[in-house]
Amino acid sequence: MPSISEQEKFGKVAKWKKQEGDKVKTGDQLCEIEFTNFSINLNMEEDSYVAQIMVPAGDGEVPVGSPLCALVEKQEDIGPFRAAHAPQANKKDFGFTQKDIMTTINHMLKAAQIDEELAGQLLSLARHENLELYEAFNGSFEGKEFSEQGLEGLDTSFFLLQAKDIVKTTLAPAQQESKPAAEQNKPAPEQSKPAAEP
C-alpha cells in the first residue's frame, strides 16, 4: 500500500485493473486505491508479470506499506512463485479462523503494540495461511486452545516474539525473489482524484 501522506495510515483496493498472470507494462494502471479523502491509480514503473494478488478488491483497509501483490520479471516465474507461496495451513486443525488472526493484528496496530510495517507483513502471512504463523498464534494462549479462551487469552508478547522471527525467515527471502507492487511503484500525483461522496 503506497504512502501518499502522513495523515493516511490505511488504504483500500477498490479495483484491480490487472489480474494474476497478466503482463503489465511501464505506465499501465495496476489497481485503484481509495484513501479517506481521495483515490489514486497505482501505475507501473517497469514491465512485470502479476504473480499473485495478495489483497483482493474490497477486502477492507490495509496498513500503508503492506504488499498488495507480487510481481515477477518473467512469465515462466509465475508457476514456481505460486507453488512456493501456496496456502499451507489447514484451518480444520485450529480452533480459529484467518479472520481471527487478522483482527488480532489490526487490534495490535491500533493499540500501538506493533508498527505499520510489521502489521502489513503479518497480515500478508495471515492471508496466505502461513502455517508457522498459525502455529505461533495457536501456541500463544498460555497452553490452552484458542476456542477455550478466545482472543482475551492471547499472550501478545509471546506471539509477537515468534511472529517477528517468522517474518524474518519467510518474507525476507521472498522479497528478494519478487517485487511488492506497493513498494516498487509510486503513483503520479496528477492522477489523484477526489473520492466519491458517500
Radius of gyration: 17 Å
CATH architecture of the largest domain: Beta Barrel
CATH class call of the largest domain:
Mainly Beta
Mean pLDDT, to the nearest integer, reads: 78
| Weakly predicted, low-confidence segments | 173-178, 181-198
- Helix/strand order: EEEEEEEHHHHHHEHE
- The count of helical stretches stands at 7
Q: Quick one: CATH superfamily of the largest domain?
A: RNA polymerase II/Efflux pump adaptor protein, barrel-sandwich hybrid domain
Helix and strand composition category: alpha+beta
CATH fold title of the largest domain: OB fold (Dihydrolipoamide Acetyltransferase, E2P)
Question: Could you explain the architecture of this structure?
Answer:
With 198 residues, this protein is of the alpha+beta class. The chain has 2 domains: 10-83 and 178-194, Beta Barrel (OB fold (Dihydrolipoamide Acetyltransferase, E2P)); 91-177, no CATH class. It is built from 7 helices and 9 strands, in the order E-E-E-E-E-E-E-H-H-H-H-H-H-E-H-E. The protein has a 5-stranded antiparallel sheet with strand order 6-1-3-4-9.
Quick overview of this protein structure:
With 198 residues, the chain is of the alpha+beta class. It has two domains: 91 residues, RNA polymerase II/Efflux pump adaptor protein, barrel-sandwich hybrid domain (OB fold (Dihydrolipoamide Acetyltransferase, E2P)), CATH 2.40.50; 87 residues, no CATH class. The relative contact order is 0.18.
